[in-house]
Amino acid sequence: MRLDRRALLLAGLLTPAAAFAEKFAGKYNPVSEQIADGLWMVRGTDEAIAFANGGAIANSAIIATDAGAVLFDPGVSREHGLALGAMAQRLTGRAVSRVYISHLHPDHAMGAAAFDPALVHALPATRAELERDGEGFSDAMYRLLADWMKGTAIVLPQGDVTEGQAQFGGRSFRLLALKGHSGGDLALLDEATGTLIAGDLVFHDRAASTPHASLPDWRASLDRLAATPHKLLVPGHGPIDRDGGAIAQTRDWLDWIDATLRDAVTRGLDMSEAGDLPIPPRFSTLKAARYELQRSVSHFYPGLEAELLPRL
Q: Tens of pLDDT along 44-54?
């Protein structure tokens, strides 16, 4: 006798996750918001990468130019990149003709698989980091996201982006070669609209992630961004910043993480205890705060213990 899907689920032979996977259609439906003349923001979900969200957690930006659309951060998979490319064509009337990758993390970078590698650009440090870590990221994303990743291969960007002015399709950009969230963090200022696209150097109303972070470098980059005149800021995660508070909010979280974990180490707390420390009320609006605190413990604690604890 053949049991139907509902019977299998009720009998415990088909897990809820498997039942969900059975219905998976592999379709991304990104939503854009026009935030300035010829410029759109595409919001990621304020969550960790998971099968349920397809890994579409990072923000992207689309910029219209006479030479074609510019896509800043092409998403997490080939299908995600294709969906963003189709959206860019609908919004601008032109196909994507340039892709910028802000940094190495897969939620921002692996959607490059949807595009001709000749169109994909990043800092030299980002290309080097993807050469080093790309295969490991690919394995992790296929394990987490399964069919969402179908057809996704690592596409190395042209590591040709340098600091300074850039002209493309009649539009002027200022490119900022920074680091701190990773070894290479690209930010872009659209000079016509005063829109600063900051990648993961800036999180807004979401706790910052730190898997490859150097906090001194990150603080220096935040100083650079704060000193760059702009009207709007597109963070790597979270809503658009219209009032100028996101840079300070990101710095506050990073400073708190640094001071709190240093104090925890000197008090002899183990990693589990450090991850359960109370989070100040001022961070109550930050999405994923507990999750990112616990991740930061895993990222920083061994090094802090080596630095701060006496050697016997």
A: 999 999 999 99
Residues 6+ apart with CB under 8 A from 6: none
Query: By the 8 A CB rule, do 109 and 136 touch?
Result: no
**Cα 214 to Cα 179: distance, rounded to the nearest angstrom:** 8
Q: Please tell me the predicted confidence (pLDDT) of residue 9.
A: 34
This prediction's pTM:
0.91
